[in-house]
Amino acid sequence: MNICKNVAVCGRWFVNGTTPRRLSKSLWTKFQTNFGVYDVVDHLGTVSDLRTVPEYVTLPSYAKTGMVVDEPDQDCPPEIQNKGQIEMLRQSCKFAKFVLDSAKAQLKVGATTDDVDRFVHDLVIDNNAYPSPLNYNGFKKSVCTSINNVVCHGVPDDRPLLNGDLISLDVSVYLNGFHGDCAATYCVGDVDDCGRKLMSVAEQCMYKGIEACGPGKSFSDIGRAIELYVRQHGHSVVPSITGHGIGTYFHGPPVIFHSTLHTYPGIMKPGMVFTVEPVVCQGGSDVEILEDGWTIVTTDDSRGAQFEHTILITDHGYDILTV
Are 63 and 52 a contacting pair, CB within 8 Å? Predict the structure, then answer.
């Protein structure tokens, strides 16, 4: 989950200056161009109530109020995590990846994204952790489920998964006072060649960005590496959706831009922990937020895919924590 406070940046608060659009009344529209054959999500489904959390689970500060008040400002320097903090982050990130891998088995034709949310919520709670998205700035669910032309922050609802869907799961957990964050895109049933190519390009874009990381390297190197690779393969990267620093807070500096349209100043230093999570699209990079204030879709209805890891900058390179 990638949400920035700075309105000049990205994510939840700014997407190309657009306002939420109202969808048509039809449920899903079959879409066929050079992007492939798939179902365009053009309807916000019914979202169930917030799931309960037992009293014994350690809560982030926003869990009860939905108000995020303790995250560092984006203008603050990125935090340098100490040895003890890094070990706690390793545990939370490892657990986030375990939840993501476990949820993959739930992605079957006919299952709803609300079913997936229930599975993720229960698995996280059963391990004495908290699902980080739940009630973060009022987000009503425990995981983000983004299907086809929904590229980020999809809210789980009563839509059944269809044969040929691409679905991105963004899993974040709060364990022992630290957040862990990761994401991946999966096939539901038989996905066409165009969709599978998109997934491959998106995953490699993430790794190209990670490979650009290391002590003394510029943060802008990440977006440069991603943009070069995605253009070579005829796709686009959404510049308004970014990675972020993470720790005891869900989102903080640095802001990780996945293109060269924006830059974040400074260099990477050992002890910095942040996510790399580019959203790659088949068509253009323009996106907009729907009327729920969360769901981000492509304006040309092309599909998107996202992969995410949380990484640590070390003395000699980087370490992927979400493994």
Answer: no
> What distance in Å separates the CA atoms of residue 18 and residue 320, rounded to the nearest whole number?
34
CA distance 241 to 278: 7
Tens of pLDDT, residue by residue over 92-117, are 999 999 999 999 999 999 999 999 99
Strand extents, DSSP E, the chain: 28-33, 36-41, 130-131, 144-147, 150-152, 166-175, 178-187, 236-237, 243-245, 252-256, 273-276, 279-281, 287-289, 296-298, 304-306, 309-313, 318-320
Share of the chain above pLDDT 90, in %: 89
C-alpha–C-alpha distance, residues 80 and 64, integer Å: 29
Torsion angles phi and psi, residue 268, rounded to 5: -80, 145
DSSP string of 227-256? HHHHHHTT-EE-TT--EEE-SSSSSEEEEE
Q: Collapse the DSSP code of 253 into the 3-class scheme (helix H, G, I; strand E, B; otherwise coil) and give the result.
A: strand
Structure tokens at 293: 């204030």
- Give the distance, in angstroms, between the CA of residue 227 and the centroid of all CA atoms in the same chain: 18
DSSP state of 78: P
Q: What is the pTM of this model?
A: 0.91
User: What is the Cα 188 distance to its own chain's centre?
Assistant: 19
**pLDDT of 122:** 98
Q: What is the pLDDT of residues 154-168, one digit of tens each?
A: 999 999 999 999 999
Interatomic CA distance for residues 204 and 126, integer angstroms:
33
CB 251 within 8 A of CB 9: no
